[in-house]
Amino acid sequence: MNTTSRRAAVLVAALVVATAPSAAGSPAGPLDQVPWPPPSTHGKFLPYPENVDLSRTYPACGSHIFVYPGDVFDMQYRTLINDEGATVVEYRGNLTVDVDRLSDDASLEEVAVSGTWFEIYDPYGQTVTYDRPGPAIVAASDEVETEAFAEAGLPETFLYLSGDLTETVIYDRAPNELGQQFPQALTAEITENSTAYVFDVCKLLDEAPADLVPAP
Question: Which residues does the chain have with pLDDT short of 50?
């Protein structure tokens, strides 16, 4: 898993991306390594780092899908430390993403995923909770997440327009840099699923207008 905020990545891109940070997937190119989660911003929102490539490739739809920022990208974050020592990263912004299926170039363009979402890192950093209200696009990054999604009645890659999705992932070690290879997920659990208007992204790509799908 190669994302800092899977949510931002799917979402943006996590962008869900979240979150982008998963909120998984492989980066499109080399990334500058940025410490993540960041230290406390003392309640202040800061611009999301400009030197981070949020494009991601995920195994999905019998092929791979490429998720990348659209024409709208205005994202900020702030970091807070709670009394238990957990790090809470809050994101907000106006965002769109594009999704391409690599096998046939079917695409979804300018999908709105604006809003506010959260990542919560436990004091040891190995347990991360991703909390993302819709609208959002989420893609499973590996078999562990695919199984967690299936148990919650969700497809491997999906768009939801409203409601909330909360996922807790336990890793074999703590991620500590944005853009760094993510550690292996040991477990993943959907702890809240109030999503509504859920659409399978693979089916949406199957139904993409012909003029958006190049002839073979």
Answer: 1-32, 213-216
